[in-house]
UniProtKB/TrEMBL annotation:
Protein name: Lipoprotein
Length: 177
């Protein structure tokens, strides 16, 4: 039994270390690398946290496209859920220090992120208006509410940093007669 648990633990550890190391996408990193829009299009972005958008449906308006309908306190509510580590792609930059990231095949469905000084200048989810409990986000041409707990959902990117000595070193191939 102990051997099985040990083997299982080693297998889980080996598999979990195979994935890419994700690092926060920050304003500092963006500036240091000098990335242009064409560079951002080649980067795979990921969400750091779950994000749940919801909007209340009016009676007779039950056409659902991207989400699910839930009854909350007697109201019909449509939800769109973005799970943690959902991959997304850069679509465009609506203005300076803003990126629109799409997590679906439709480029019209995107979330906007920007640097947040309260979160180490990480690119976090932006809303047009943050209130105490929620914020308002435009997604797929409609206004949605997002919980204030989702305010710190940020973008992650796979980033492989080389150690300082790796950049200054060299590999010698040898010499033959």
């Amino acid at each position: 039994m102990i051997r099985i648990l040990t083997l299982l633990s080693l297998t889980v550890l080996a598999l979990s270390s195979c994935g890419p190391k994700l690092s926060p996408f920050t304003q500092r990193l963006y500036e240091e690398q000098g990335w242009e829009e064409q560079d951002l299009r080649r980067i795979q972005f990921y969400l750091s946290e779950d994000v749940v958008l919801q909007r209340e449906l009016r009676s007779g308006n039950s056409q659902i496209r991207n989400g699910t309908v839930r009854v909350i306190n007697g109201r019909d509510v449509e939800q769109v859920v973005f799970r943690r580590n959902t991959p997304g792609v850069f679509i465009f930059s609506p203005k300076t220090q803003r990126v629109a990231i799409s997590f679906e095949d439709d480029n019209d469905n995107f979330l906007v992120f920007g640097p947040n000084p309260k979160n180490g200048d990480r690119y976090t989810l932006l809303a047009s208006d943050w209130e105490r409990d929620n914020g308002t986000i435009t997604y797929a041409g409609r206004d949605w509410k997002v919980s204030s707990a989702d305010a710190f959902a940020s973008l992650l990117i796979p980033l492989k940093r080389l150690r300082e000595e790796d950049r200054r070193g060299r590999v010698v191939g040898g010499r033959k007669i």
